[in-house]
Amino acid sequence: xxxxxxEEAVAELIQQPYEPLAFITGFxxxxxxxxxxxxxxxxxxxxxxxxxxxxxxxxxxxFQPSAPGQTSDALDAIEASRKTAQGKVRYxxxxxxxxxxxxxxxxxEALFCPLPDLENRFGFFLPIAGIDRYEVADENPVDIKxxxxxxxxxxxxxxxxxxxxxxxxxxDMNQFMTRVIFCLFxxxxxxxxxxxxxxxxxxRCSAHPExxxxxxxxxxxxxxxxxKDGSRDGKPTWxxxxxxxxxxxxxxSLKVPEFDWxxxxxxxxxxxxxxxVINPDIFGSMIQSxxxxxxxxxxxxxxxSVPNILKVLNPLFLDGLxxxxxxxxxxxxxxxxxxxxxxxxxxxxxxxxxGNFLVIAYREMREIEIRVLKxxxxxxxxxxxxWSHVELKNFYGIEIGDFAAETAKLALWIAQHQMNQKFExxxxxxxxxxxxxxxxxxxxxxxxxxxxxxxxxxxxxxLETYIVGNPPYLGRQRQTNEQKQDKEKLFSxxxxxxxxxxxVSGWFLKCNxxxxxxxxxxxxxxxxxxxICQGQHVSILWEKLLAAGVEIxxxxxxxxxxxxxxxxxxxxxxxxxILKNVHPLKKKIYDNDLxxxxxxxxPYITSGRNVIVxxxxxxxxNKPRMQFGNMALNGGSLIFDQRxxxxxxxxxxxxxxxFRKLVGSEEFIRGTMRYCLWIRQNDLEDAASIPDxxxxxxxxxxxxxxxxxxxxxxxxxMPYRFREQHESHSYSLIVPRVSSDRRIYIPCGVLDxxxxxxxSAFAIFDAPLWTMSVISSKMHICWIRAVCGKLKGDYxxxxxxxxxxxxxxxxxxxxLTELAASAETIQLIRDSHFPSTIAEIYDPEGxxxxxxxxxxxxxxxxxxxxxxRTFKNDTxxxxxxxxxxxxxxxxxxxA
Length: 895
Description:
alpha/beta; 26 strands; five-stranded mixed sheet
């Protein structure tokens, strides 16, 4: 059952007259209970309820009808029932036919509503159908405030010191801002004496902002001097109150930008925040708010929100730790085993930026540790020792920017201090953290060229190693020469066609190599653009990864990945979690706020067998050839918009016979008009007698002759024509190469022989009409979603992967005729809505009812050809298509 089907079943259930037994059994059926289970409960054979008229569906539901107005009392009785506890029931449910009441006994959350409103509350019970609600932490509003205030400070300082925004001073500026952030943290979190930083500045500089820079320079200098070896002798008394920090934070240049009244106000405003409640991971977001955005793109410095980070960490290993705690809650030995496991877990981010992933992992592990120690104290009466099982030495990172690498170390120290304070609150006093000592290993370097085992020793049977992160993702066209060389060194000799892969693929390969060395539990989970699980990436990369003996343990389907940066741009990403020597009974696919369990996750982020679709240059014998439309290669000289065409024909009316409509994806979908000169060889002499045409032909010839490409120069011999010049005898089918993923069907269409299809679309010339029926179907768009790539969030159609591989059952003449008739119906209904464009009538929020009905009827015709009935959902469609694809490949001897 999927969520849509459950919602429909619940809506139908509440329309029926209320009768207690019929209601609860109908409810159970809606959420997937088998007919056998329902029959046994109706007959009393399988019903172990100890309540009057109660029904107990083991593990899931204990129901008792209530008297009018007594739903609360009935719910309490169900919760108190001995059989509720024995049956490990998830939901207590009751209704009097008017009011409905339920409680999730796992979370404690209650639901009270009028019975007719149950249709809108169906999601409360989705875990019964194996679809859990996935919740992540909310953003901390103080974090967001701090980010904004530091950004204002930065902008004000740059306005006063414009040279500090140049490449020559950028590192100094970033280093200064990091020092300020640390001091604000330190004075509110107990690392420094309370408010010493803000009060010193206010006392010495309040009326004179010009004094701020020299005052800060003096502070920074002293904080880098040991207070026990005489280094501070002769320094002013007021500054010696600041502790020795060490750790390299105040080493190097001590220059500070000049302050004016505006920047002083912003610094003072930032100091008023309570930095005790600000997460150390906000370091990354703050720094992103002040670093150059171009630099961030080049260095892959992705500073990420806490909820997004937890989407990676929780299912990879944190949820498993929490489950062990729950399972061992009453056992001293089991809880001690959790503590021992915490000591052996290593977290490694090989694109760590300012350390957000490492900080959150550290913090969450310490939270688990504190909870376990508190419980052990309750069970044994023994006080916890004054040390932590979670040590910074077990956290590792690689970062190409030295400034970000230093920031990551600093953020982890601050995270340790904050967690030590929590530890101290619960169990006793801990040693001071200053001066900073060696902790996490964060190396500055190029992660794709470094030997990772030189940073983090190879995994062993005694240690668990989890690699996490958000590496830089750059498509082939955006990669620098150095980045392309990174890929060449890594992939050459190992993976063919690697040049077309995204830059992030390098991290997947190195992560895979690292965890497959492990003899103990290990895994990795990375954020990447959704293209990593689509199109050529799957056939080129994933076949190699999965052959190494790993499996996909969890994944998040495509979603918008946002961070806390000021100029925040969302990227469409997926998260893929790979496991080695960890075999959960069920793998999990996270789809927005829903969680689906399955036996296996494919590289396409679907459930089913690991079938990989490879591009095929030629279509199978039961499909006509699909090819690119016509590429002009003319510099625009042979192409006209409506105004240009009209002006040309006004001057040269006898040239009209050489003009044809030019239709690509944009023209077909949006209804815009373009034209082209279409000259055949036997018409060349007559066409060239028109001076304006002759001039345009000469321009094309010059353009092609000047090209560095030999094939283009050869085309200069035929400057009157497109590089490709295909046309149909009767009509052609156009398929846009890119189309919005909001549409529920792919918008293809039939064009007459007078229309020329451009290379922004695919074409089937002289196509049989039944092909439009197939391409316009739900079966086909399911296939395209799964196996083709995307351009941002839009479908990117492919003839070699999407069409040539698409499994079509053998079709007899009757089937072909029926499909052709269905396609014709769709085309006629489209025409009836003229002048509305394809974009307008295929908008999912405004699709005309007759067109939607025609498509649904088309789906019925096609799906009956596959299995004799319509499919229940897209999951079933894809599973069947992958089975057919497997057979199709095997029959060609490629299995």
